[in-house]
């Protein structure tokens, strides 16, 4: 059984559609603590983290939005995550995906102690821009670049221990702009886009990545973006992209991760409850956390005799 530590991260500064700051409350209302406890885990809720007063940092890239706020969140969430990793498994309740600038830094700090860090990015997007190159200026599109140790993050604290590209797996991506295509082509990042998943299914590429983590005795940070899911099952996200994971595919992925026993920290990001339909996306995400932590959606009865 796992000691699960909920960390509220009402981050709204990494993108432009207001509402993600309501995410942590929605996960609590949807019963995330109850769900984890029912599976036999112990649950501690650190409440919502305070990013502290914003500084006055600026970027040479005039497009960048909310840099001081995002830096405040990054420092505060990295600290909270480090404290949580010392005694259990942090579950970051987002908040937009810029929160992973901090959560991944916490995971990398813990991994510095010995075991290598692997990162599984369940997302429609590759999030591999940098502060200095983003054209939209939305910093939720940058955490993969940051954790991989790419250039263009001079405004940020140096990433504790950049994650080797071969240890990063993008899974489910289907919306990649030309700059990101070029960046990805030049890396060793494992890219399982929807074309790959259409051809091989979800289980084979997922098992292959998890086997790499196991072989290296690695820690595994999982970052689950609502837009990994198809909008038909998860409408409450500002960046819907058609053609995402179905209900069953998403649960399969989560069950495989659980069976591996490898996950050491988790982000739940980009839920925008203001766009939800009677809480169904929040409930779907909580159900996926259930699968990540041991629940089987469909029983597989053993054949008698
Ligand atoms: Mn994302």
Explain what this protein looks like in three dimensions.
- The protein is α/β, with parallel strands linked by helices and 305 residues long.
- 34% of the residues lie in helices and 16% in strands.
- An eight-stranded parallel beta sheet has the order 2-1-3-8-7-4-5-6, with helices on both faces.
- 52% of the residues are buried.
- The model has no long low-confidence stretch (mean pLDDT 95).
- Bound molecules: manganese (II) ion (MN).
- Manganese (II) ion binds next to loops.
- Residues 97, 123, 125, 127, 225, 270 line the site of manganese (II) ion (MN).
How is this structure best summarized?
The protein has 305 residues and is an alpha/beta fold. The chain has helices spanning 23-29, 32-38, 67-85, 100-111, 143-147, 178-185, 194-200, 203-215, 247-260, 280-292; strands spanning 3-9, 42-48, 89-94, 117-122, 168-173, 190-193, 219-225, 263-269.
Topology, number of strands: 8
Share in helix: 25-40%
Briefly note the structural class of the backbone.
Answer: alpha/beta
Strand content: 15-25%
The residue-averaged pLDDT reads 95
Radius of gyration: 18 Å
Number of helices: 10
Uncertain runs = none
Global geometry: globular
Largest sheet: 8 strands, parallel
Biggest sheet, strands in spatial order? Answer: 2-1-3-8-7-4-5-6
Q: How far apart, in Å, are the first and last alpha carbons? A: 32 Å
Hetero ligands: manganese (II) ion
The ordered string of helix (H) and strand (E) elements is EHHEHEHEHEHEHHEHEH
